Amino acid sequence: MSPVEHLDVLIVGAGISGIGAGRYLRTELPGRSFAILEARAASGGTWDLFRYPGIRSDSDLHTFGYEFKPWRDQESIASADRILAYLRETATENGLDAHIRYHHKVVAAAWSSAEARWSVEVERGDTGERTRLTAAWLFCAGGYYRYDEGFTPRFEGRDRFAGRIVHPQQWPEDLDCAGKRVLVIGSGATAVTLVPALARTAAHVTMLQRTPSYVMPVAKRDPVANLLRRWLGEERGYRATRRKNIAQQRAVWRFCQRFPKAARRLIRWVNTKQLPAGYPVDEHFNPPYGPWDQRLCAVPDGDLFKAIRRGDASVVTDRIATFTERGVLLASGAELAADVIVTATGLNVQALAGLALTVDGTPVRLPETVAYKGMMLSGVPNFAFAIGYTNSSWTLKIGLLCEHFCRLLAHMDATGTTVCRPEVGDPDMPTRPFLDFAAGYVQRVVDQLPRQGDRMPWLTSMDYHSDVKLLRNGRVDDPALRFSLAAAEVPA
């Protein structure tokens, strides 16, 4: 029987977070052995999975990109193919290709305090074979939603519709919407991306929404960024642009939080300027919640508004009573005819890539854990995860988390310890959901996620500057961490 392979760090997921984690390990701790396990057949995560028309970033790539690798494209709001090329180039440049193992789905992981290691069960997607390996640390970089299926609510009469129904997460390669009437159900980032992309060739595209979202035009090209790059060069220009955009994102979010009424009026004014004269802005672009209570939708160069002005696209705000043979019947009594219906109705959140964790034989129940610094779980040793910002570019936090993770491992090397376990000192500390966000995809599963506390280090920060102090400049030997040796290593 062949021996079980042992690694210092096992990274789950070869998307933007997993590639980032691998790079930081290679750079900061070059002596560590590690592997990146990817359940799918390709790297890139979201940017390889989604194939729907128009798929692109809704954050600028100077902050969505890695701090260590400049974004060199003229357009800062980029299409998926360019983001994917950037990620794969990063992996190759940093020698990560040989560390990525495809068709490797991590099913379960069991921690042994006696051995101070995780025993990890892996399913080979290409063969169905199950194997096992061990690791001193487990780093979950799989994001927070399910890759195998998106969310679609139950629609009455769905089977009656004579046309085609698709979800953006499973976009068929053979679907051609040219010359067809397309109905896109939804009002989030995916819907506002799809509508103008489909409107280029479709007979007409209708965006049917139950509740409006905040939508703002953003420039595809950042002229200041391109000017700074010419003046300062690639590296310094990228750093300067990154600082500018971080400050800009923070200012917008704080303004919306502190002055929601003024922010609402400003967004409405911008929308009015973008839409045809007399357009019912308050009916279709005036959400009942405050700005940034949910993620604000960005549309590059105002493409959604341009499609509406041309008459290629329209917005309907109503509820679906039932699907019909021809389309959907609305609660108002109106019927929307369609040849293709796209259910851009959101994601299914899945914590920790669906991993089943146990610690010394006891299952880890996520709602009973509290997140430490937004990257570890109380009572779970040698385990870290990567969740980015909901109110800013995802990767800003990922970079800080990876830096802190490497510093933590270096500290353990220096102190000769092998186990690190976060422990809540105050059992009466109030807690609230880990993702304190009003979006429907979060609220549907909020009771299945970890919790966060009301104070540091148990408070999950969504502010980059606070996290720079905590994760980049703060100490790693926090009183809330219990460092020790494996039980087998403790002298009698």
From TrEMBL:
GO terms for molecular function: monooxygenase activity. Keywords: FAD, Flavoprotein, Monooxygenase, Oxidoreductase. The keyword Oxidoreductase applies. Its cofactor is FAD. It holds the Pfam family NAD_binding_8. Its EC number is 1.14.13.-. It is an enzyme of class 1 (oxidoreductase). InterPro entries: FAD-binding_MO, FAD/NAD-bd_sf, Flavin_mOase-like. Belongs to the FAD-binding monooxygenase family. This is Flavin-containing monooxygenase.
